[in-house]
Amino acid sequence: MDVAEFRRRGKEMVDYVADYMETIEQRQVYPDVEPGYLRHLIPTEAPLEPETYEDVIKDVERVIMPGAASPACTELETVMLDWLGKMLQLPDDFLAGTHGHGGGVIQSTASEATLMSLLAARCKAVRLVQASDPQSSEADIMSKLVAYTSDQAHSSVERAGLIGGVRMKKVPTDDSYAIKGATLKKMLEEDKAAGLIPFYLCATLGTTPSCAFDHITELGPMCNAEKIWMHIDAAYAGSAFICPEFRPLLNGIEFADSFNLNPHKWLLVNFDCSTMWVKKRSDIIGAFKMDPLYLTHENQESGLVTDYRHWQIPLGRRFRSLKMWFVFRMYGLKGLQAHIRKQVGLAKEFESLVRADKRFEICAEVIMGLVCFRLKGSNELNEALLKKINHGRRIHLVPCQLSGRFVLRFAVCARTTESHHIQEAWRHITQLTFELLQEPAH
Ligand code: PLP
User: Quick check: CB of 107 below 6 Å from ligand 1?
Assistant: First the structure.
């Protein structure tokens, strides 16, 4: 959709809403659809090829309006999470389908998904210990619980530990900034020998500093054997797994208990939309279920309806699956794959430019849209370059530390980025580098 069409469609949408408000008295207050009504009205998978806006908006009247904000909001979300789960080739265990034990939910952010998984895991661990040792108090068990994550994990993981009131240990990473099975194994053995109870691992696929991938095929079986909940945080990189060439990076997902990615980061869905799947929805519902009288409804014990209020912290929720539905249909799977591939191609283009300049070095393998690079030289020199770049206000880079070295991160993420932007950015960086190296201090 170009800008001209966007303007036109936006105005049409205002008319649609205004018409709705004008005719609201003629509409039914309470929908008379049966649980599961929506799944039968739309395909079981996302389209391969793009559809038109007209196609989608026609379906709003046919599919959404009979179920109004609820149950349509819940039902479309469940089906969209199945659509995306299928695009990612998630194991069937993670799909809701019509009889599944798993399923997906939209959280606001990856931070929230991590926290939810940690709290569910904590609850499960406490119950497990109490099942074999009924005398042990919750406080005593909590004081022994240990969660693990990589020393490269996003700060939100450490924060989940803080909020969840459990200790979080950082697992050292290998030369490629990923956790290896052997390193975790050693930590688990030491901690168990010290009387602690390992209960949770947050592995990352696509770390924030360098887009590294933890070895989940090694970590997963160990977690399963030790009854440790494995959550996978793929906030950024997860979107790329819809492309068959990137899907092998998700191998090992079959061992995970929960998985999260942010379509709002890299799948063209506007903020906020963070998709989370669990293998056993009873784990998450079991941890957070509350049923006051004012929230009871006649279908709640039937097992036919999903009550997302048990899957998240807030009670109220927005109709965020609508934007997934629009995006998936208007791009089609092929369009979304093309978007990912184009951005990875642009990152590779930037990488080639860096590699061709002997003053610079690439600091981590470029797998997706992130290029970690630096000037060969001191951290101070690179800090000065970053300062110059960001003060220039034409491009914006965020740094990281890798093996004690100050590194610049070039991330391709805007929908409209083209090759000429990459070339321009590199010209700008080399011009500023030239100026920096002329300065007396350097
Ligand atoms: N996890 C990873 C790997 C990330 O890169 C980020 C953000 O950049 C996050 C989690 C936090 O994401 P959110 O803002 O959705 O909480």
Answer: no
Amino acid letter, 422: I
Q: Give the full edge-to-edge strand order of the sheet including 398-402.
A: 360-362, 370-375, 405-411, 398-402
Reply yes or no on whether the pLDDT at 301 is more than 70: no
Alpha-carbon distance of 83 to 206, in angstroms, equals 22
Ligand 1 binding pocket includes 154 (Cβ within 6 Å): yes
pLDDT at 300: 63
pLDDT band at 294 (very low <50, low <70, confident <90, very high): confident
329-368 pLDDT, tens per residue?
Answer: 999 999 999 999 999 999 999 999 999 999 999 999 999 9
Amino acid letter for position 168:
M
Helices (H), 35-109: 53-59, 72-87
Distance from the alpha carbon of residue 202 to the mean position of ligand 1, in angstroms: 13
What's the structural domain count of the chain?
Answer: 2
Atom number of ligand 1 nearest to Cα 208: 5
pTM: 0.95
Q: Which domain holds residue 215?
A: 77-330
Which of 330, 358, 374 is the last residue in one of the domains?
A: 330
Q: Facing residues of 259 across strands?
A: 232, 277
Given a cut of 70, whether residue 53 has pLDDT beyond it is: yes
Q: Is 408 helix (H, G, I), strand (E, B) or coil?
A: strand
Residue nearest ligand 1's atom 14 by CA? 109
